[in-house]
Amino acid sequence: MITDMTVGNPRRILFRFCLPMLASVAFQQLYGMVDSIVVGKCSPDPVIADNAVAAVGVSVPITLVFMAIATGANIGCSVLISQLFGAKDYKNMRTAVHTSVISVLAVSLVLTAAGLIFARPMLELLGTPPEIMDDSLAYLNIYTASLFFLFLYNICTGVFTALGDSKTPLYFLACSSVTNIVLDLLFVLSFGWGVAGVAWATFIAQTLSAILSFFTLSRRLRRFSYEGKACVFSLRMLKKVLVFAVPSVLQQSFVAVGNLAIQSLINGYGPSIIAGFSAALKLNTFAVTCYTTVSGGVSSFTAQNIGARKYERVTQGLRAGVCLLLLLVTPIAAAFFFFAPQMVGLILHEGSTEAMAAGAVFMRWVAPFYFIIAVKIVIDGILRGSGALRYFMVSTFVDLVFRVALSFLLNGAAGYMSIVYAWVIGWGVAAVLAVLFYRLGVWKKRLPPAGETVRLQADC
């Protein structure tokens, strides 16, 4: 269902739009969560279980670089498409969709080749322990081979979101998540494929959701009527898409590369600490991704209303987004803080006491800061949707610098806790900057006058 966010009660619209997206995120995060749970719980030996969880965990920061590029492209492309949709410029909207899909898939093929060639050198550069190298490499290679479908799914989801449709991706993710869980259990328990088994399960499930999304989107776009014919590919449109997509890709990539640097520190503490941190990071990623999803909804709301020149609704969207996030953050933060050992215990083997302790410490420290980072994430949605991408990148880059620099600077004195301290300090500084940027009104600076219609002509 396509939603016009330029009319109606902003809070009601945003809530209805974001709730299916949050459910989609829950299913999507199940992919990685179930992978770690299955390999962590299915071995009777806690050492073998820790090694398996660590093997998946070591690969995750590298896979997050790929995911960061896919997500950044998704977010960036959806902003332009939202603005064209809000302006009722359906012909150029269709051209923007075609151009975005072709460009993103071309990038995915280049990254697939690079990932397969440099998988082992990347793992060696991170200091991956020898006892988990083979499993880590197998997981990373299989994941990399699925990048075409990962990127296809993400760009389709970005277009659905731009059109105000948050339910269709939910249906596909529900289907593919169930498939992933069933195949995880089949490949690991019945076939004994171990870490490679969960990677193949993710590959197949991801492929399924991508194909379903693509064909549904193609049919959905035929509903829009306009004069003339939309371009299959437009260089002029690509330049406009890149204005929005490149900063989002860089922002997501900065975070992913920062996680790689931090992972190199973690790898020096041995498989048990790697496993504990990996379990905690899975839970933390689940929470933060939920918050970022609300930010994506705010971004689409902002872009559509800017396209329709209804600027007063943007501030109303911010208030609605903050309200929704507070409702979301409170139970998650409480669960992670008061039940930290039990939460990481959902992933780790019950005999992995050292790993559980490391994971629980991380969860208890970051949980209270979810309220702070949530505000920053909502403001990010406003900055992205309005095109104030420079400021959006600054706050994220500052967060990255603090996290990585302090992790290394404090490592000698605080050890593993240096990463925990750096994490929350980086969040705090970034949140202060984001609030400052919003209060200064940077998102309003380059907006066209209300009532003015802007048409973007493609070069075809």
Helices and strands in order:
Elements: H1 10-41, H2 46-86, H3 90-125, H4 130-145, H5 147-162, H6 167-190, H7 194-221, H8 235-266, H9 271-307, H10 312-338, H11 340-345, H12 353-366, H13 370-386, H14 389-409, H15 411-414, H16 417-439
Helix pairs in contact: 1-2, 1-6, 1-7, 1-9, 1-10, 2-3, 2-4, 2-5, 2-8, 2-9, 3-4, 3-5, 3-8, 4-7, 5-7, 6-7, 8-14, 9-10, 9-12, 9-13, 10-12, 10-13, 12-16, 13-16, 14-16
Question: Would you mind describing this structure in some detail?
Answer:
With 460 residues, the chain is an all-alpha fold. 81% of the residues lie in helices and 0% in strands. It is built from 16 helices and no strands. The chain has helices spanning 10-41, 46-86, 90-125, 130-145, 147-162, 167-190, 194-221, 235-266, 271-307, 312-338, 340-345, 353-366, 370-386, 389-409, 411-414, 417-439. Helix 3 (90-125) runs antiparallel to helix 4 (130-145) and helix 9 runs parallel beside helix 12 (353-366). It starts with 9 loop residues before the first helix and ends in a 21-residue tail after the last helix. The mean pLDDT is 83.
